[in-house]
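Obj: model holo form, ligand = pyridoxal-5'-phosphate.
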Amino acid sequence: MTSPAAELSTQPDRVSSLALHGGSPVCAQPVAFMKPGLHREDIDAAHAVLESGMLRAAGQCDALEKEFADKSDAKIGLTCANGTCALQLAYGSLLERGDEVIVPAWTYIATASMLVAHGCKPIFCDSREDTFQIDVEDARQRITPNTKAIACTHLYGTPVDIDAVQALAKEFNLKVIYDAAQAHLATYNGKGLGAFGDAVTYSFYATKNLGTGEGGMVTVNDDDLARTIGLLRSHGETDKYLHGHIGFNYRMNDITGAIGLSRLGRLEAETNARRKAADAYTAKLAQIPGIVPPTVTPGADAAWHLYTIKLDLDIITCTRDLFADALRAEGVPCAVHYPRSLTDQPAFADVVTDHPPVARSLARRVLCLPMHHELTDGDVDRVCEAVAKIASAYSA
Ligand SMILES: Cc1ncc(COP(=O)(O)O)c(C=O)c1O
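Output (holo structure tokens):
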């Protein structure tokens, strides 16, 4: 609920008209935040696998690997149990214990926590205020003789400045792992994300643009690396019950593979629908004082897993959390990705050396609006109307 202090410098008439205070909501029927629903054909594909009795990773996973790698401009795809395992497989095959790895403080925890799980030292760097993506100049300042890699996320589905990351990596002979858990089918300079870096990892978690419940993928362009990842994925088994290396069981299964393959057939059209909705949002939200729509990296075409705005807290007089409550009351679900910088996560207390300022500041200002492939022009209009209503109520 609102505290009196949180409502200083507001427009009292407009505040009292907010649904949060009993006014009528902009959306009589709430807009959906996301649409992870399966189609009949996905259910039929999973059903066919169940009837076949071949439940382990087999033909469906093989086909998903091939098709997903093709669509992402990668040579080889390797399915796995989830996006966290995908990161562990990539790190485990490219990095040594003790390596320092530059990672943005502004990302989901797994990008950095799986470095720690592998015995590497995450070196947290800052992100760009405009695109939310890794700040390559800040990354440069943090390179030491022990730095061996950069692990960065195409956050919210927007590709990072890949040219700049690759140039830095080349200059200092660093490996590059891209976490594309949120960026299926995004492109950079006209190419799929699989064309860049040493390994690219994906999540197929239920709410992702390609959701299978749980699931993941690593794409690579090197046969030897693919072989190493394949061994790590399945107990280092080089021959039947012959284990040359310590590995894991991070395999996918064919029910998941079939759902992924079926959904992949629609993913390009669904991604384009997200892009259309994002353009419509940006055109409208840019007109609202106090609201800053997201900026896409030059040369990139985003996948828009999340559409994330920033509040300009010099103009908006309430907290982001109060703004979010007010928006929900208007019938617009919203979410905060993420409420804190990774350097403020207790789990990293032992490895944090400083707090990159943009990451910390974004944690107070970002808000994700509804985004999915079925968002209509009317939905976008209503969401923007609700944002404008709240922004004008809580403005200086
Ligand atoms: C950026 C990022 N990396 C990694 C992951 C981990 O993926 P999973 O949940 O499939 O393990 C996620 C999932 O939310 C993510 O958003």
